[in-house]
Amino acid sequence: MSVVHVKNLKKNYQKHEVIKGIDFELMDKKCIALLGANGAGKTTTLQMLSGLMKPTNGEILFSGSREGDDFRHLIGYLPQHPVFYDWMTGREFLEYAGKLSGLSKKDSKKRTQELLELVGIEEAKNRRIGKYSGGMKQRLGIAQAIIHRPKLVILDEPVSALDPFGRREVLELMGRLKKETAILFSTHILNDAEEVCDEILFLHNGRLVESGTMEQLRDKHQQAKIDLEFK
Length: 231
Ligand code: ATP
Prior knowledge:
This protein is α/β, with parallel strands linked by helices. The protein has seven helices and nine strands. Helices cover 36% and strands 27% of the residues. α2 (90-100) crosses α3 (105-118) and α4 (134-145) runs parallel beside α5. The protein is globular. Bound molecules: adenosine-5'-triphosphate. Adenosine-5'-triphosphate binds next to α1. GO terms for molecular function: ATP binding; ATP hydrolysis activity. Residues 4-230 form the ABC transporter domain. It comes from Cytobacillus solani.
């Protein structure tokens, strides 16, 4: 089942067109990686999907919703530079996030405990966030993003700033998350995309220049090489 269908999405900053017509569809419990260099337009695309920014043109259709509906409750979003309150413990931070998302005190505590286990920081739940490693902070950020059980979780460069150990833990967590929700995440590293994603979209200068499964992309690349040899 489709979770979101994006049609001819465009964004201008003043007169400068930075997203030039993007189309894709993301299915339930699948992962799409948006791959591109700095400035390709990844953050702008993800911010439009998260509801933080209005597209200049095009449609973002969530399954079961109509154009113009408020779809933010269907989405969990982890920005590229998330803000944490370093003086809070991980548990306090998630309980607070739960209450902000509308859960009762009791439900927020219950959901917090579930998430601490899911993201693997149960043992550190009473430690201040300021003492967490980069990987632990990202996993806490993912827990916060899914506290309201969204249908789609959007992660903006969740592993780019991490050391190899932190990167591994976050990628493994994304693999587990995929069993429950669709994931859209951005990266500039092909190996990260390949590891957890079913489909890769290559964004260059605001356009999707290539898309498909890793196998399809390899086949295309192979075919292009053969075509060149016979020219
Ligand atoms: P990075 O990996 O560096 O975050 P990105 O792929 O996420 O890059 P965006 O941040 O979406 O790319 O930027 C796309 C283009 O839009 C870039 O040319 C950038 O300079 C420009 N841009 C981004 N935000 C603004 C803004 N608020 N006003 C004007 N131009 C902007």
